[in-house]
Amino acid sequence: MFKNVELFYFSGTGNTLLLVEEMKEVFKENEIKVSVKKIEDTYSPKINKDSLVGLLFPINTNATMPFIWKFFKSLPEANANPIFMVNTHNGTPAISRPLFKLLKGKGYNPVASCEILMPNNIQFDSMKPDENNRVTLGKRKIREFTINLLEGSTVWDLNMKGSRLVSWLARNTPLPWITSRLFCKFKVDKEVCQQCKVCVNNCPITNIKMDYFPQHLNKCQFCGRCITNCTERAIYIKGKKDSVTIKGVV
């Protein structure tokens, strides 16, 4: 049984944070000490040699956001620390094998992986019937996964889902992100914007500056925080102003 768990997570629109909170409850029920840190605030972290390490993050463009991959690469060398991965997604990720290889190369012991389908929190044209059910099912799945992890009955699944090529490009080149920026332009409804700076303060890569109204710069990685956390729904993607969004939690 593990005595200490260190969780590192990023949550853009709230899906991953919901699972982190559920996982924390299971650990606490088993009297295991848990520390939780945000990936965007923690580079080159110091990790206790006796800790179980958890990485929880969303999938984007068949891999994950470059700043999250940068964090993984910044992890210190380990002495066989057990480590697990949980990713949330709305499509088909292809991150399991490259992350396994990276962690193995740093001396970690990858013991478990879990991929959980969660709601797409932005760009709805209409709410799909199963979207709300995904939250309930996701929380149930993470609880079962955590119990199995503590019982030692998990494995790291190396099956690659999604496009390996797109995954490689997203992790190693700016091409998929540049392409996304060409087709997904952020707009601000100046009639409802309150200049509150919630979007500025929550952007994990400081890609939004305040020029009386919020202005997106050219390095967006599409985490969705600015859209789902705007209290006035002033930020939207061009052509999707009337789309439905689920309130984000960060």
What does this structure look like?
By secondary structure, the chain is of the alpha/beta class. The chain has helices spanning 15-29, 66-74, 96-105, 131-151, 164-172, 175-183, 198-202, 225-228; strands spanning 4-9, 33-38, 52-58, 82-89, 109-117, 186-188, 208-211, 213-216, 235-237. It has two domains: 4-164, Flavodoxin domain (Rossmann fold, 3-Layer(aba) Sandwich); 174-237, 2-Layer Sandwich (Alpha-Beta Plaits), CATH 3.30.70. The protein has eight helices and nine strands. A five-stranded parallel β-sheet has the order 2-1-3-4-5, sandwiched between helices. Strands 6-9 form a two-stranded antiparallel sheet.
How many DSSP helices?
8
User: Under the CATH scheme, which class of the largest domain?
Assistant: Alpha Beta
Overall mean confidence score, pLDDT: 88
Look at the helices and sheets and give the structural class: alpha/beta
SSE pattern? EHEEHEHEHHHEHEEHE
Range of strand content: 15-25%
User: How far apart, in Å, are the first and last alpha carbons?
Assistant: 30 Å
